[in-house]
Amino acid sequence: MSQTTKIIIFILILFVASSVFLFWKSDRGLDMDYQKDWWSVSFAYAKNTDLSFVIENHSDNNNFSWEIISGKETLQKSDIAVARGEKKNLEIDLSDLTGRVFVRVSDGKTSQEIYKNL
Amino acid sequence: MFSFIFSQLMFYLVLALVLFLPGYFLLLTIFGKSKTLSSLEKFILSFGLSIILVDFIFFLYPRLSLPLNRLSAFLGIFLFSATALMIYKLKIFPAAEVPEAEAALFQFSKIQFSAFLLLIFLAFFVKTAFLSQTALPTATDMGHHMYWAKWITENRTLPDYAGLPDFIIGEHIIFAVISLLGGLSFLSAFPVLTLYLINIFSLLTVFILVLRIFKEKRIALLAFFLLGTLFAVSSPQAKFISGGVVGNLLGNLLLPMVFYFFFRFSELLFEKNQKKLSRTFLALALFSVFGLFYTHHLTAFLFLFIFSLAFLVFLISNFKKAGEILTHSFQALISRQVFPVILAGLIFFLFILTPNYFSLSATQTAVGAAVKITRTGLDLNNIRSAVGESRLALGAAGFLLLILALFKNKGNFGYVLISAWALMLYIMSAYPKLLFINLPSSRIGNYLTYPLAVLGAYVLFQIFQKARHYSLNNTAKIALGLILIFVSREGISDSVQAFKTNDESLELVETFNASAYVAKNLASKDAVLKDHNYLTGDSWIKLFFMRDYKFPLSRGYFKRYEDETNPRETCTLQMISNPGGEAARECFAETGVNFLMVNPDFDGGQFHRLSNFNQVYSNPNIAVFYKNN
Hints:
Number of helices of chain B: 31
Largest sheet of chain B: 5 strands, mixed
Helix content of chain A: 10-25%
CATH class of the largest domain in chain A: Mainly Beta
Oligomer: heterodimer
Number of helices of chain A: 1
Strand content of chain A: 35-45%
Distance between the termini of chain A: 77 Å
Largest sheet of chain A: 4 strands, antiparallel
Shape of chain A: elongated
CATH topology of the largest domain in chain A: Immunoglobulin-like
Order of helices and strands of chain A: HEEEEEEE
Number of strands of chain A: 7
């Protein structure tokens, strides 16, 4: 085998090795769950007055508590288990509400809230 | 695991199909199995030529009303390659003798061979280590480019870029075709890896260019060392790969390739029995120039200046033979090898696909008196930090030495080319006023690393040669060793500093998650505004919507709104920074923006105070607000 052929093969091997490694690293980086600890809460319907919401969990903490708050009054509250990588939709059936209504979700350590002005 | 292996295999097969086979078969048709090009040269040049060929193949599709899909993309490349192979089979190649010295150019001593492998390994190692932290799709430029590549795959035709002169079709076709054929997502490492390959091949192209010009393997190895192994990360190397500076990386691949072909043409210009071969190289040079014009306007612009200077200096330094040079060159231009290439190039330019930057307004922005401070030229400190102090010093010494060598080698167009490459880039980046150009000086300054590395290699080699020749004492040898250590230390520390990057994967997936949420809730009359200052990977958000290049709207860097030399709209600033203000209210009415993606810590407060915004999505780094009236 000539030297130039060896050089070409060497370059190809290095590129393939680098490429496999970088694809693997990038796949893990883009994986919502891999070595990540976060979760999100969002309204199931962004545009209307429906208060149904979704908890999407990408953390090790599986137990969430949530409450619907209007002014200083808690209208509804409960706990829910959402496993890592899972999304849970919570149907909320509340009507005749006015003002700003919050959905507050906590995993025991941190809390996040979303709201609609009705 | 299986899908990972399958996608990997597809990626390599597609790379071979798109970025190797067309160029390889073109060279096979032209040179057959002759040794005019070594196998290493064929391998390296096939890559650059394939990029250009693939572009030209797909430029024809809209004209022929062919959709660009997986099957048609495969057939286009396959038909070209098969035709080239058929021509090769039918063609009779005269036996070509290659001079012994030329054949020996690619035969390395054991030490040289090992050194080359080591340099290649180190270049890969450092770049891969850097990219392992930065290969995620976060870079702004890359996001913009991949929008257009994805646009091609979704619309199955070529874009007209809506009048945006900053984008050129040659920057996007290969990504679109690789994605189409390999079924690869743009939100993966494949765009970065494609750029990585382009970067590696640009280093290899410089290697064969230097080897051909100086006929000295040690200079070529030193050039590879100064360009690819040291400073392996700094701009325009791995940082440009992760940053998605597509045009510049392609330009730095095609420019040395163009020089390579011109040099080989010039070498044989006066060889009576090599006329045909010389003209073949000229044809390949001009074909590559056309490719360059379709790929990156700045590099093409630089090429025109560099080549003009080189040709002028070559004529002046060979004053007595100037008439002969011009006559031979003209005869070559109208020869049956070259003229069809010129004609085909012009037909493509005028009738098939005219690059979108070929407009009066685009030309006016590149030519004229510079006003912005970023365009008035770099001072020595700027250039030093752009190319590295040691490389600048070595390059400057190499330039002077090469000019001296030119007096002895007036007929060597390669010497002139390397000198002109460095000198013209220096003038254009440091004194743009002299040439009446109005372009970002730092962007031109980055190109200097290539010729300076070559010149640095040349001077280092000369010093070592002289030291050996005069059997210098140990003190002198130590002094030379110190130069190398100094250069290496700077090059390595430059790379090490660049490694101080944060892991942005968490912020990135949060951006993508929020983008998917907005995309799911988006109706055709809705409009989105996102923030560029505090969101990670925000330029990639548009790939979730694929509505328009300028969708979603973006609040840019704050300083841009204060730039007096380039006044711009302030709606994107007002709608996030002061959404309740009178100006913002008018902007909302004018733009129809009703979804806003911002960082909750920096920009959530102003929305919380208003009653017409609902916060509809929340994760630790992104809040999405919906304007409800």
